[in-house]
Amino acid sequence: MKRIPYVNDEVSTRDFKYYIFDWDDNILHMPTKIRMEKLGEGGVWEPVDVSTSTFALIRSDTARYRPPQGGGWDEAFRNFADSPGKDTFIEDTIAALERVEHGERPGPSYNVLKKTLREGRIFAIVTARGHAPETIERAVRVFIKYALTEQEREEMMSNLRGYRRWIDKAETFGTDAEELDYYLGMCRYSAVTYDGFRKRMAADPIYREKLATATLAAKPELAKEFAIRDFVEHVFHMLRRTSGFDRSVAIGFSDDDRGNVKSVSEYIKEELSKRFEGIKFVVYDTSDRALPKGRKVCVSGQLNLPGF
Questions:
Q1: Among 28, 70, 26, residue whose Cα is nearest residue 47
Q2: H/E segment holding residue 5
Q3: Exposed/middle/buried for residue 120 (C-beta within 10 Å: 0-12, 13-18, 19+)
Q4: Can you give the residue ranges of every domain in the chain?
Q5: Buried b (16+ CB within 10 A) or exposed e, 227-262
Q6: Which residues touch 89 (CB under 8 Å, ≥6 apart)?
Q7: What does the DSSP 8-state code read for residue 164?
Q8: What's this model's pTM, rounded to 2 decimal places?
Q9: Could you report the per-residue pLDDT of 55-65, keeping only the tens digit for each?
Q10: Could you report the per-residue pLDDT of 111-167, keeping only the tens digit for each?
């Protein structure tokens, strides 16, 4: 007997809540290492592999740390970009998820991403990595497979069909795989050191001017700003085309890098909150591992996001 898919029509009563996630050390503690050189005793530079969490602390310490002299930053982040014949990001994502399964504490936004997926809400992944959007989407699919239980995946599919009926006026649905494709295709995946992303950012007149005067250390933060603006514009146009702004709209951003948190908070206050007055913004600093859910550092608008 053919299974009749359950459609959760109650999603039509929900508010509009969307999320932007950094990946490394925010969702998962990935095993991927950055190749650096450290100044040792006697003034000798020695090769050292550092974790992403360590790099967030030492990236401005140019007196003691530098990228490899043979290859520079491209060599330093060699494992953070797609390579022909290799699937490092997917393999490292699986390894990180398996460690969570065996008891290791995940990143502070791990459960928020799980809830976002279960509820079928639109989201963005914005990472300093250099992967193609398709690679990051594949990692999200791996997350769904490993992090969500069968019951939670069923809940996700019922919510996705509910949104399709409510917003798209659909009365017939595709297979679970087809509906998942549709949903994940509406989300955004930005790796800010990916060549395609860099070209798109350089073609933008506002950010082309910003990049021309930015320091090397400030460029990754500018790239995250650009990716966040892209997602907010995507959400804004999506809502305007569908149901409009007839209820509360909120976007949350979480990152474990304090430099990114500071720059994004300022960007929201100075630009986004003024341009998109109907959207409420929340920023979370997840750099302190002693705080399981991170620390709220910036709110635009009067809103409290439970569970985030």
A1: 70
A2: none
A3: buried
A4: 9-28+87-300, 34-80
A5: bbbbbbebbbeebeeeeeeeeebbbbbbbbbebbbb
A6: 32, 80, 82, 129, 131, 135, 136, 139
A7: H
A8: 0.88
A9: 888 888 999 99
A10: 999 999 999 999 999 998 999 999 999 999 999 999 999 999 999 999 999 999 998
